[in-house]
């Protein structure tokens, strides 16, 4: 162990030797003095290396600064210490001071260290300058320098340049091969990374456990199960399967490829499960939608006395978010605060997402504003949360704030706000956002394109959606799905079905959302047989049938009047019937006059929500339409007893950049009296009747106050915009 006294003694010894060195020309024993100086230099560098190795950078720097004479080893040792400590700015600062002194010579090891620092700090300009120097001085032919250049370009996002450096390297080793594969896989180019791995194996180069681990990651991300199995075989032959990070990557690969049971088997075989092992299996569960398993694995980890890290907690909180378990999520939030990990951005982002998905946007906003640092995920999460929650104004405000104070908005942020424009049918703002996306060059990304198609479609401009779709040069599933859904929503069922068939012909593979779009089109067109053909096709693509798919089929059967089949599908589907499917059946029973099934559907809905106004109203209307006056009166009496009042419907209209909202029985608008008078004049000219005089009106009390019908009120609102 190095004490301060020993460091001081070495410093004094070194200073004395330097004084002696300056007098060597006068001293008769010049050779002896030089030997003494070199010996002290060696001892000093050894001390410096030991301090750096122990992580005592402050003491090492203190010794370094006191040295009046330094050699290349002294500088390299100190720079190496800062690079290992991830302090790239200090490492580059020291190198700059060394660079300007012509006494010191560069060497491949030093240059590789500095290039690594450039990659860590994204100092691509300085890295390019060093690249030029290495080419000019022929250091680029060194495998160390070449590998460092390759790694720097990959880490700074210059993947093409990194591959070019690798292809031009005269000598390659396992480090350079692993660096190029790692760079490609981490940039999302999994197939290209596997191609390089194939070249490595064919050329007979040796590889290590790190190479196999990154190749397994590529297989996991690209769902290449067969290739993953082959690499698994290689790990068994080489004995790498016992290496912790290889075993963890194998677990992830099998989990992401749909082999969860085998992934769990491999996980259980790991003798010593550390936090990385537990985090791997927990993250795998979260990423594959097995959220309850994710939480159970976390509880098992805690029972094994392994402490979670930030990545573990981020994954398990994400699981809570996706199953909307707010109580459990709040407990994890408290656990995060107790462990002092709330400052970690990945954890804070997960908690913010959890609150947003659970409808607690106020808590999500509080987390966001308390964060001292915010990354692109933080901003995208808060914008997306408000957009999905229907808070359009807030989503726009956060987008403006992001453009002003945050990082450059990504396609996710713009796509979120475009969805708000579509949901609120605010076409003008959507057009302005479209123009901004063109200016910043994001209009060609798949997320923005699909967002634009969806926005124009929901705003009624299906031709504008089609125009954007036709301008797409590279086929992507998201945009095709958006166009199919747009056609279906506009009742253009045949166009939606034709586009779905074209999607398969061009080689795209439909996903679960695509099938929802085409099933909706079949439902609107009443194409029952074709709908069942597409429904059965979902399993052929090895996709899971979701509750939404069953909902589309139930809606299709209900529209076709096949109510008994719809009720049978609800009873036999692998999901418990929710309010959506039972409401669909109830409305269909009202339309087709099926009292027996309608009563059953209403009973199920009232069990879920005893105070649901629309259920009571629809059931009363069904009884009235079939002449069952006593039953209808009983439903009305039950509503009055419970105090059930239907929330009035409302609509809005934009006039001169001002949005006015209207609800039945609403007196808040400053011109409501004028509108009421205008309605009276219109009613005298052309009497407006309520169809179905025996039916129960949606909100009798409010309409009695106005002596108006909802349709009359909306007509008044529309007339004021003329």
Task: Summarize the model shown.
InterPro entries: E_motif, PPR_At4g14850-like_plant, PPR_rpt, TPR-like_helical_dom_sf. 72% of the residues lie in helices and 2% in strands. With 722 residues, it is mainly α.
Strand share of the residues? under 5%
Strand order of the largest sheet: 1-2
Structural class: mainly alpha
Radius of gyration, in angstroms, nearest whole number? 35 Å
Low-confidence stretches: 5-34, 688-722
| Most strands sheet | 2 strands, antiparallel
Number of strands: 2
The CATH homology group name of the domain at 545-644 = Tetratricopeptide repeat domain
| Name of the CATH class of the domain at 545-644 | Mainly Alpha
Shape descriptor: elongated
The CATH topology name of the domain at 545-644 reads: Serine Threonine Protein Phosphatase 5, Tetratricopeptide repeat
Distance between the termini: 88 Å
How many separate helices?
Answer: 40
Per CATH, the architecture of the domain at 545-644 is: Alpha Horseshoe
DSSP helix fraction: over 70%
* Mean pLDDT rating: 82
Protein name: Tetratricopeptide repeat (TPR)-like superfamily protein
PPR repeats: 71-105, 142-176, 274-308, 375-409, 476-510, 546-580
Keywords: Repeat
GO biological process, one term: RNA modification
């Amino acid at each position: 162990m190095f004490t301060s006294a020993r460091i001081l003694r070495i410093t004094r010894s070194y200073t004395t030797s330097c004084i002696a060195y300056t007098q060597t020309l006068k001293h008769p024993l010049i050779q002896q003095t030089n030997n003494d100086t070199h010996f002290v230099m060696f001892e000093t560098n050894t001390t410096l290396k030991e301090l750096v190795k122990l992580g005592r950078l402050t003491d090492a720097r203190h010794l370094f600064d006191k040295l009046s004479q330094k050699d290349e080893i002294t500088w390299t040792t100190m720079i190496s210490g800062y690079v290992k400590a991830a302090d790239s700015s200090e490492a580059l600062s020291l190198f700059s001071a060394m660079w300007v002194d012509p006494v010191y010579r560069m060497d491949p090891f030093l240059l590789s260290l500095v290039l690594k620092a450039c990659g860590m700090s994204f100092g691509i300009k300085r890295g390019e300058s060093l690249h030029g120097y290495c080419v000019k001085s022929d250091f680029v032919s060194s495998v160390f320098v070449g590998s460092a250049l390759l790694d720097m370009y990959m880490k700074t996002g210059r993947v093409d340049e990194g591959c070019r450096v690798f292809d031009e390297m005269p000598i390659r080793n396992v480090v350079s091969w692993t660096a190029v594969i790692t760079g490609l896989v981490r940039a999302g180019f999994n197939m290209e990374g596997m191609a390089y791995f194939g070249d490595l194996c064919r050329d007979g180069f040796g590889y290590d456990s790190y190479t196999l681990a990154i190749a397994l990651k590529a297989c996991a991300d690209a769902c290449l199960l067969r290739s993953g199995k082959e690499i698994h075989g290689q790990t068994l032959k080489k004995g790498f399967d016992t290496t912790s990070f290889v075993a963890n990557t194998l677990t992830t690969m099998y989990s992401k490829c749909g082999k969860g049971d085998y992934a769990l088997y491999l996980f259980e075989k790991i003798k010593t499960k550390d936090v990385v092992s537990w985090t791997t299996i927990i993250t795998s569960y979260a990423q594959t939608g097995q959220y309850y398993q994710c939480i159970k694995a976390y509880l098992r980890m805690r029972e094994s006395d392994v402490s979670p890290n930030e990545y573990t907690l981020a994954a398990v909180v994400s699981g809570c978010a996706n199953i909307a378990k707010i109580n459990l999520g709040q407990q994890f939030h408290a656990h995060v605060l107790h462990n002092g990990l709330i400052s970690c951005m990945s954890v804070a982002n997960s908690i913010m997402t959890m609150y947003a998905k659970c409808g607690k946007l106020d808590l999500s906003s509080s987390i966001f504003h308390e964060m001292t640092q915010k990354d692109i995920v933080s901003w995208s999460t808060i914008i997306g949360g408000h957009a999905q929650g229907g808070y359009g104004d807030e989503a726009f405000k956060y987008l403006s704030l992001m453009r002003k104070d945050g990082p450059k908005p990504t396609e996710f942020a713009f796509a979120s706000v475009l969805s708000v424009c579509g949901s609120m049918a605010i076409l003008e703002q959507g057009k302005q956002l479209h123009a901004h996306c063109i200016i910043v060059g994001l209009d060609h990304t798949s997320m923005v394109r699909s967002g634009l198609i969806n926005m124009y479609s929901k705003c009624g401009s299906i031709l504008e959606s089609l125009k954007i779709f036709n301008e797409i040069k590279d086929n992507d599933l998201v945009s095709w799905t958006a166009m199919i859904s747009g056609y279906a929503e506009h009742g253009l069922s045949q166009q939606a079905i034709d586009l779905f068939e074209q999607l398969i012909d061009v080689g795209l593979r439909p996903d679960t959302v695509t099938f929802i779009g085409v099933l909706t089109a079949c439902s609107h067109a009443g194409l029952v047989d074709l709908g069942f053909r597409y429904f059965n096709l979902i399993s052929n693509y090895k996709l899971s049938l979701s509750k939404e798919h069953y909902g589309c089929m139930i809606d299709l059967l209900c529209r076709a009047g096949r109510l008994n089949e719809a009720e049978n599908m609800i009873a036999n589907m692998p999901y418990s019937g929710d309010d959506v499917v039972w409401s669909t059946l109830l409305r269909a029973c009202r339309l087709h006059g099926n009292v027996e099934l309608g009563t059953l559907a209403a009973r199920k809905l009232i069990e879920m929500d005893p105070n649901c106004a629309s259920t009571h109203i629809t059931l009363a209307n069904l009884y009235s339409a079939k002449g069952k006056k006593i039953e209808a009166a009983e439903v009305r009496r039950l509503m009055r007893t419970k105090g059930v009042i239907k929330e009035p419907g409302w609509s809005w209209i934009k006039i001169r950049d001002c949005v006015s909202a209207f609800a039945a029985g609403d007196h808040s608008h400053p011109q409501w009296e004028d509108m009421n008078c205008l309605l009276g004049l219109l009613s005298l000219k052309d009497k407006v009747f309520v169809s179905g005089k025996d039916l129960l009106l949606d909100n009798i009390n409010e309409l009695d106050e106005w002596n108006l019908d909802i349709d009359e009120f909306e007509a008044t609102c529309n007339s004021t915009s003329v």
